[in-house]
Amino acid sequence: MKKIFLWFNDLLSIFYPRGCIGCGTPLQRSEKFLCLNCLLHLPETNYHLSEENPLEKIFWGRVPVEHVYSFLFFRKGNTVQSILHQLKYKGNKEIGAYLGELFGQKLARAGCLADVDVIVPIPLHPKKLRIRGYNQSEWIAMGLSKGLGLPYSNDFLVRATFTETQTRKNRFSRWQNVKDVFQAADVEELAGKHVLVCDDVLTTGATTEAAIRKLLEVPGVRVSVVTLATAK
Ligand SMILES: [Zn+2]
């Protein structure tokens, strides 16, 4: 039966070839989302393996964070930009879970974030959630959860107001725009925990900072950050 299914699958892919998100070449049966070549050449930051981690500097003088890691570098036109586009605008939420799990495994192998209690995705506003149908950061968190062997939860951070698109705003007005967007929730359960905040992209850190501030208001909470990508 399995053989027939695989045969049928191959037949289907003749008519509906699944293309690699990175380069467009048809995927082999063993490949998922990315061909082996693109997968092996993903521009990994590897900041979790180095002493010098420039991502931590993003939060210096703003909020105390334990660790900040991003899996990949995105650049205009690179594979990672295609991945993010698929994840956010093309309904391809599974790529978020897939890469989240991959990064989670790498972090676990390096012994990183072993004392985290819970992974908390940055929530989308309900309006955006309705339009997109899913929260891409939650899918990344699900993958991380699997790779790291740690639980994730949507219960500890909620979003209140709708923010306009941030692309044309400068750093200060962006901050004005997001500072009260989040609220910590279920605070008795949250108290004392090391929380791993998870998002798709880390750039100025304004959104992440707003979330971290609210979490840090809860007694005993410590925060680390993981994102799928960061700019280079
Ligand atoms: Zn490829």
Shape, please? globular
Strand order of the largest sheet: 1-6-5-2
Number of H/I helices: 10
Task: Provide the succession of SSEs.
Answer: HHHEHHEHHEHEHEHE
* Largest sheet geometry: 4 strands, parallel
Instruction: Based on the coordinates given, report the CATH architecture of the largest domain.
Output: 3-Layer(aba) Sandwich
Rg computed from alpha carbons, rounded to a whole number of angstroms: 19 Å
CATH topology-level name of the largest domain: Rossmann fold
Which small-molecule ligands are present, each listed once? zinc ion
Low-confidence runs = none
What is the mean predicted local confidence, pLDDT? 90
- Estimate the strand proportion: 15-25%
* Class by SSE composition: alpha/beta
Helicity range: 40-55%
| CATH class descriptor of the largest domain | Alpha Beta
Characterization of this structure:
There is one protein chain. With 232 residues, the chain is an alpha/beta fold. The chain has 10 helices and 6 strands. The chain folds into 2 domains: 41 residues, no CATH class; 190 residues, Rossmann fold (3-Layer(aba) Sandwich), CATH 3.40.50.2020. Helix 10 links the parallel strand 5 and strand 6. Helix 5 packs parallel to helix 7. The model has no long low-confidence stretch (mean pLDDT 90). The structure holds zinc ion. Zinc ion binds next to helix 2.
Summarize the structure.
It contains 10 helices and 6 strands, in the order αααβααβααβαβαβαβ. By secondary structure, it is α/β, with parallel strands linked by helices.
